[in-house]
Amino acid sequence: MLDDPMRNLSQALGLMDVGTPCLLLDRDRMDRNVRRLRQRLDRLGVTLRPHLKTAKSVDAAQQVMMSPSGPATVSTLKEAEQFADAGVRDLIYAVGVSPDKIDRILALRARGVDLAVTLDTVDQARAVAEASRRTGDPIPALIEIDCDGHRSGVLPADGATLVRIARSLEDGGRLRGVLTHAGASYGAVGDDALRHCAEVERASAVEAATLLREAGFACPVVSVGSTPTAHFAEALDGVTEVRAGVFVFFDLVMAGIGVCSIDEIALSVLATVIGHQPEKGWILVDAGWMAMSRDRGTSKQRIDQGYGLVCDINGKPFGDLILSDANQEHGIIALRPGTDARLPDLPIGTRVRILPNHACATGAQHGAYHVMRSGSDKIEAVWPRFGGW
Fold it and tell me: Can you give the residue ranges of the D-serine dehydratase-like domain (predicted)?
C-alpha cells in the first residue's frame, strides 16, 4: 500500500451525525479486496493496471495503484486529467478514441503523461496517426479485441483487419499492443463459466497479438481485464497486464455471480427512515434512485436484490429486506417476494445501510466517500469524488 491519505476529521462524526443519504466506504474491506487481487495476480505473474472509473477519487486510487504514478486505466479524459493532476503518469484511455478528443490527449502527453489510446478501426488509426505526424508526438495505441461479442473490438482471428489498422496507425503513431475486456463474464453463472470466460479472454488477446507479431509489428502489451475474469483466471500465459475496477469495492452483481461474498462489499449508502405504509408492507427512506442509481443489475440473477440489500447501521443484512422500489428521493423498503421473514421494526429516524447493485453507478451519484472502519460507527475521513467527461 502507498502512504495512507486518510484525511482525518478534526472531530470524528458518527453514523448518526452525518447527513443522509451519503456514501459509506469500509476501508478495511476495501484494503482486503485490493490485497486479495494483487496477491492473486502476483502468483500469476502479471501486472495489475487498476481501472479507476469506479473509484473516481484520487484518495481511493492511491490505495489501489502499485505506485503514485500508476499504472492505471481510465474511461474518460476527465479521469485522465484529474489523475494526471495528482501525479499519475502511466494511463490507458480504455474507450474507443474519437478525433475530437485527440487535442486533449496531446495536451496530457505534453505534460509528461504516457497516455495510450484504444481503437478498433482504420479511421481511428488514421486520425491518431495524422495528429501524431502534425505534432511530432507518436501517440501510442492499443487495438481493442472482441473476445466475446459483448461490445466493440476486432475479432481475434481477423488478421487482415488487425494488420490494416496497425499499418494505418504506424504512419505516425505507435502500436503498443492489444486490449480486450470480457464483458460477457458479468452474466456468467458458476465457477466453471467464469473460468471459461477468463480463458477465452486470455486466448483471444494472445491470438491477436501473435497475428500482429507474425505480420512484423511489435506488440509489447497484451492487456485483459474484468473483475470476474481477474478472480477466476487459472493461467495468464502471454498476458502482460490485467485491468479491473469494481474489485476495489465489489457490489451485489459481483456477489450474485460468485466473485465475492456479501460481507466483502465495501460500499453502502447510509439512509434514514422517513415514513411507514404498514398496510402495504413498506418502510420509506430518504435514499431513492438519486442516491442508489437506476441500476437493476441483479434483476436477471437468481436473487433479485431490487435497488439494493438493506442492512442495519452496522452493516449486517436484515435478510430478505430490499430496497424494492425507488423514486427520485424516496426509497421503498419491503420484504423480498416469497419470503417468510417478518418486516423489522424500524422507527422514524432509524438509520440503515443499503448495499448497491452496481458500485460504479451508485458511486456516481455522490460527491464523496465517507470512510470508516469495519465495526466502527465513526467517519474517519472524507475522500472527494469527481464526475464528468
Answer: 266-373
- The tally of domains found in the chain comes to 2
Cα-based distances in Å from 148 to 9, 45, 104, 324: 46, 24, 31, 32
Q: In the structure grid, which three cell numbers stand for residue 182, read together?
A: 470480457
Whether residues 89 and 146 share a domain: the answer is yes
Distances (CA, A) of 26 to 198, 314, 376: 29, 11, 9
Q: Domain with 99 in it: what CATH number?
A: 3.20.20.10
- pTM, two decimals, is 0.94
pLDDT, one tens digit per residue, over 315-369 is 999 989 999 999 999 999 999 999 999 999 999 999 999 999 999 999 999 999 9
From the list 73, 20, 21, 57, the residue with the least C-alpha distance to 243 is 73
Give 48's strand partners.
242
Which domain covers residue 74, as residue numbers? 51-244
Identify the CA nearest to 264 among candidates 249, 244, 278: 249
Is residue 242 a contact partner of residue 236, using CB atoms and an 8 Å limit? yes
220 and 267 together in one domain? no
Any domain includes 17: no
